[in-house]
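Supplementary Note 2. Why include the ligand at all?

Several targets in our set were suspected to adopt different conformations when bound, so apo predictions alone were not considered sufficient. For every target with a known small-molecule partner we therefore ran a joint prediction. The input for heme C is given below.
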Amino acid sequence: MISLPHTVFGVLLSLSLLSGTSLLQAATATPPNAALLYHNYCSVCHGDKGDGNSRGKEGMNPPPRDFTHPAARRELVRERIIASISQGRPNTTMIGWSAQLNEEEIAALADYLLNRFIQPQAGIAKHPGKSLYEKNCAVCHGDKGDGGRWTSGMSVPPRDFTSERGRALGREAMIDAVSRGRPGTAMAAFAGQLQEQQIAEVVDYIRLAFMALPEEIEGLSGTYAHGRQTPPAPVSSPEPVAVDMQAPMPQGLSGNPDAGRDFYMGNCFTCHGTAGDGQGPRAYFIRPKPANFFDAKYQQGFNRAALFTAIRDGKLGTEMPAWGKVLSAQQIADLAEFVFRAFIQGGGDGIVGAVEKKTP
Ligand code: HEC
Ligand code: HEC
Ligand code: HEC
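The joint prediction is reproduced in token form.
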């Protein structure tokens, strides 16, 4: 179940934890990728949008800090942020990170929090793509990215970047559209007027200012990807060979499916769907798609033990978080038991019916 690269990264990570040096420090001198660090270490509690609205927040007292709240703008100055990330906050789940992250990484994270969540306007105001956008694009795409008013009469109106369809545009597709234009529409090719770098800047500005997706981390993911400069290729699991589907939970644990259902309906359904079919509300924005537990691969290969490991470790190269960082072994066993009974063994009957009544 655990693929080789995953294991290797796990070992590397624990080694770097033990020795107190950072993987990044050891491997390369390029600046840290704060977005990736945030995604891997912080978003599980503070949320992708920095508002503390996360899959991990359940039951935390105090809750993870909402960086977008006006109070954060007043209180969280750079020095305090750096101190809190390094040393943690006593008697909370906010641990100190100075053993895992070096000073440079912690400073980069502090700037990332400030620019992206705490004072996003300040960060965006200084973005190099902003003036390019205002000069070349705003006339059609609008100051707010949702289309200039006068363009409503165009046979093909400009894409509304803030809409669901707009937000689904990939960075590369956007760069391509800006470079080469869109034949038969008012969208001209800018390759002659703007340099490649400027096109990338204006696209990044659009994504940051209007699309509000963590674009820097698109396609990059995986809990142990920390410090890598290129995204690891998604690891595809080998075809299952005659798995014993009745194998018990590891570590002598026994899961409580009701507790598992409650957590699933609070935290997993956004991606995997209330019915376990991978059609949750966030699935649209995610590649590769969240697992559909009715696929043969899961039906035939994921017994309780495999589910336990998969939930605990997450999946390298995908959006599947490593829940072992925030949940106890018992909570993971509860989840594995629920997923197993409701979607793998139940084949969608019985428990799923009961589940639907509890859907949020
Ligand atoms: C396991 C959950 C969890 C994780 C993971 C986590 N945090 Fe926190 N964080 C919290 C909680 C809870 C608080 C609120 C603590 C308090 O109220 O004092 C907090 C507070 C903070 C604060 C505000 C501290 C202050 O001075 O008031 C900052 C800044 C912060 N976290 C940054 C980070 C960064 C950066 C990461 C990733 C490296 C991270 N956190 C990872 C739970 C978490
Ligand atoms: C004269 C009006 C006009 C200007 C100026 C303009 N666009 Fe567009 N843009 C459009 C229209 C119309 C479309 C819709 C094309 C389509 O749907 O095929 C579009 C589509 C796009 C798309 C999405 C393409 C897709 O695949 O849906 C991107 C990205 C884009 N524009 C970026 C820019 C950027 C960046 C600039 C400035 C450098 C810019 N546009 C300037 C009219 C304009
Ligand atoms: C942000 C979206 C997201 C959330 C939240 C999420 N998952 Fe996933 N999950 C994924 C993706 C993406 C995959 C990978 C599918 C693939 O490999 O093609 C995945 C895969 C899985 C797998 C199979 C792993 C494997 O090795 O193939 C299991 C089991 C799973 N998730 C359970 C859960 C449980 C339980 C929760 C809640 C505690 C959860 N997931 C929350 C996105 C998510």
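The CA atoms of residues 247 and 303 lie 6 Å apart. The chain has a mean pLDDT of 77. Comparable summaries for the other entries are listed in the accompanying table.
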